[in-house]
Design brief:
This protein is α+β, with helices and mostly antiparallel strands and about 200 residues long. The protein has seven helices and four strands. A four-stranded antiparallel sheet has the order 1-2-4-3. Bound molecules: protoporphyrin IX containing FE.
């Protein structure tokens, strides 16, 4: 998993509960306290999953609650680091249609081609009709709750509202998750909320 994911989680934990909370979660995941997670480097997926589980265990919050808090923190950081991705999309529909491509762009910073490919293979998106996007997500990490939280948060950034229906789900034994994203109304072009 590319290091931005873990870094945002650890920053969020530190902001919320200071170093004691952050270090307690790192200890649970067996991550050394001086680890500097980098955006151009890949780290073991199971370590990232242990950090997420550690955050659940240490805070007493549910995984869904952590996902919502995480999605807000992650997209705030993403808007700071990559404002162009948000400027390019005039609506959350356009943004979410490009999300798989955005992952591919970030993965191009990894040195090993096989690591870049793993990131690219996780998502694909297609427009079925205006107001209806289908996203396919295939990953042993099964972070479909995180997908939902991020999708809703992106809609909020654009002042929009969407529904996410998990038509197929890896957690129900399907080979991949198939998300049906639907918008009833969209905000006027170019409306991005301030942070
Ligand atoms: C500018 C916005 C975004 C950036 C820069 C970004 C970047 C990343 C990166 C670098 C990873 C790690 C990939 C890996 O190592 O395999 C990742 C994972 C993930 N992202 Fe995004 N992302 C963005 C937006 C989104 C949005 C909007 C969603 C959902 C609607 C999303 C859903 C996910 C999920 C579910 C994972 C975990 C995948 C897995 O390992 O199974 N991302 N993202």
């Amino acid at each position: 998993m590319i290091g931005i994911i873990q870094r945002v989680l650890l920053d969020l934990l530190e902001e919320t509960g200071g170093e004691p909370l952050k270090f307690a979660v790192m200890d649970r995941a067996g991550v050394p306290h001086d680890r500097d997670f980098r955006i151009d480097q890949n780290y073991p997926d199971d370590e990232c999953l242990k950090l997420i589980q550690g955050a659940v265990d240490e805070t007493g919050l549910s995984e869904d609650a952590i996902n919502v808090l995480y999605a807000k923190a992650f997209l705030k950081e993403a808007r700071n680091l990559f404002p162009q991705f948000f400027m390019m999309a005039k609506s959350s529909e356009q943004f979410l249609l490009r999300q798989a491509t955005i992952h591919g762009v970030i993965a191009s910073g990894l040195k090993k081609p096989e690591e870049r490919q793993v990131v690219k293979d996780k998502f694909s998106a297609r427009s079925i009709e205006p107001g209806f996007v289908e996203v396919t997500y295939r990953s042993p990490n099964k972070l479909c709750g995180l997908f939902r939280a991020l999708a809703h948060e992106v809609a909020g950034i654009y002042g929009e509202c969407l529904t996410v229906h998990c038509a197929d789900c890896m957690k129900r034994g399907d080979d991949a998750c198939r998300f049906e994203l639907r918008w009833e109304k969209t905000a006027p072009d170019g409306i991005l909320s301030s942070e």
